[in-house]
Amino acid sequence: MLTNASQVLLRNSELVKDQSVLVINYESDHLPKELLNTASSVCGLALDYHHHLMMLPYAAKNLTLHFGHQLPNDDSFDTVIVYFPKAKALAPYLFNLAAKHLKSQGQLIVVGENKGGIKSLPKQLPSYFDKPFKADNARHCVVFLSELNAAAPKLTLTDWQSKYQLDTPQGQITICNLVGVFSEKKLDEGTQLLLENLPKMRGKVLDFGCGAGVIAAALLKVQPELKIDCVDINAMALASCELTLAANGFSAKVFASDGLTQTNNRYDGIISNPPFHDGLASTTNIATTFVKDSAKNLQSGGLFHIVANRHLPYSDTIAEYFGSVNVAAENNKYKIYSNTKA
């Protein structure tokens, strides 16, 4: 099933007839494959690892697929399609990335939901693109078209970061947070509570949903001997985490994982401010899977230590898979769950 944005793109597929196409930030469907009905070749760049995994089985000679914040090459395309990001701060970066891979006078197509800020595109698009015009408006989505009319600035990742010093109970650490990453310019309240109640950990530790690497850096500040795996589903978050670790002189393994699926170690500890979606049904399913998989991936005696919104349905699930529920700290918004695997 195609998302609304993809359906609107597909009904305008004649725009890419016989062209080489790059699709940036595509959604949870198979739109890159569907475009091959008209395009000569398609390259997909997913910034969400789950979206990348959904498309990967369809990779072919004329359908190349990548996960990350940039392509691993300097290939140029006739057309670049950008899905307007949910994190609006990410949009200018994606436009710069699109320009880097467009041929001179190449076509830019931007699609997004009305409620997601796409209507502001004419004010947001950089001057190296022509003024965009609306090509279609359907299914609560808009498609804009433009052309590359000048050379874009060189794309340097560190130009897109917010770098700041953060005072934590573990000491001062440097945070390098790229555009579009959760809590881009300040520490969120949940992570703050977690750092105020950071346990002593041992051995091999998984930082799940690592974001910009705040939790991993705080842990390594006081326990540099820890071996930490930092995983996230978001390419910009993973790049942020790598920058943060480097800025503090720390080292950890940073890689993409859809849930805990791509992790392959038995951990002595799992720590997280889990990045879960809104909506009761999806939140319940994701929380249940995370707790279940954590219990399975922990060594006997391993520590499960997370912060979560008070209203999220953790207690019953933790009791089911850990045998009890231990709330180590809480305030009016968050709880710290801290359980040891038997």
Structure overview:
This protein has 342 residues and is of the alpha/beta class. 26% of the residues lie in helices and 32% in strands. The protein contains ten helices and 16 strands. It has helices spanning 4-10, 31-34, 49-55, 91-100, 121-124, 189-196, 214-222, 235-247, 280-297, 315-322, and strands at residues 20-24, 41-46, 63-67, 77-83, 102-113, 133-138, 141-147, 161-168, 171-178, 204-208, 227-232, 253-256, 267-272, 298-309, 327-330, 334-340. The strands form three sheets. A seven-stranded mixed beta sheet has the order 3-2-1-4-5-7-6, sandwiched between helices. Helix 3 (49-55) links the parallel strand 2 and strand 3 (63-67). Helix 9 (280-297) packs parallel to helix 10 (315-322). The two termini are 42 Å apart.
Question: Which terms summarize this structure?
Answer:
342 residues, alpha/beta, 32% strand
Which residue ranges are poorly predicted, with pLDDT under 50 across at least 5 consecutive positions?
none
Q: Tell me what portion of residues adopts beta-strand conformation.
A: 25-35%
Spatial arrangement of strands, main beta sheet: 3-2-1-4-5-7-6
What is the count of β-strands? 16
Distance between the terminal alpha carbons, to the nearest Å?
Answer: 42 Å
- Based on Cα principal axes, name the global outline: elongated
Q: Count of DSSP helices?
A: 10
Taken in chain order, the helices and strands follow as HEHEHEEHEHEEEEHEHEHEEHEHEE
Cα Rg: 21 Å
Mean pLDDT: 94
For the biggest sheet, the summary is: 7 strands, mixed
SS-based class = alpha/beta
Estimate percent helicity.
25-40%
